[in-house]
Amino acid sequence: MTTLKITQIGNSLGVILPKEVLAILNVDKGDTLFVTRTPDGVVLSAYDAKIANQIEVGRRIMRENREALRRLAE
Is the pTM of this model over 0.90? Predict the structure, then answer.
């Protein structure tokens, strides 16, 4: 378990993520993190279920309409 301290950052409050946590999340400067409320507290992740679902729907549509999309690309 990693302990983070809330600190003043400009006019806001924030936490600084250590390199080890950034490596676990597989994120870097400029990436987006998502905070999800759960029954056990909050979860910080680089994964957004809504976007992942939208990507899967797009992939399914491309698979189902592969030939039509190929012809449109010509």
Answer: no
